Amino acid sequence: MAIESTMLPLGTTAPPFTLPNPATGTTVSLDDLTGPALVVTFICNHCPYVQHVAAALAELGRDLADQGVPMVAISSNDVVTYPQDGPEQMVAEAQRQGWTFPYLYDETQDVARAFSAACTPDTFVFDAKRRLVYRGQLDDSRPKNGLPVTATDVRSAVEAVLAGRPVDPDQRPSIGCGIKWR
């Protein structure tokens, strides 16, 4: 069943985290992610909403890296109930989709709770001071609605941050599969 993101208040400071990156065997922390903006998106392997935007996430990650903007994805699903979202499967999915950004594993689900993440995908954009300037949908595309996946909403937020302009506060929640809580 599809649910909407909870829309964490704008201006919220990015919650600190240190999570494993199953692809490299290292950890990535918020402090490692330096740049003029930061994109954090909660995803998982099996969600049809994530599968719908997977190629656009790959392109977005590459484009942001070219601009010096770090992006990370985090999987917080309960892997006991959803083993297809486990760390080994995350590595395979990232390779299959061409994701070049770190895809981190939130085994305790503490990071998802700290972000008030509710669904997959659920995307957050922070400015250089790591204050939340955007949260919600990538764009208006949904499975079966026929609209192209462009990540326009997230791209516009990042462009505003990079240009020193305020991000449009009229933001729409993401819609996707609910995070699979323990």
UniProtKB/TrEMBL annotation:
The residues covered by the Thioredoxin domain are 8-163
Quote the InterPro entries the UniProt record gives: AhpC/TSA, PRX-like1, Thioredoxin-like_sf, Thioredoxin_domain
Task: Show the SUPFAM superfamilies listed in the entry.
Answer: Thioredoxin-like
Domain of life of the organism encoding this protein: Bacteria
Q: Which GO terms describe its molecular function?
A: antioxidant activity; oxidoreductase activity
Protein's name in the database: Alkyl hydroperoxide reductase
Q: Which organism is it from?
A: Mycobacterium asiaticum
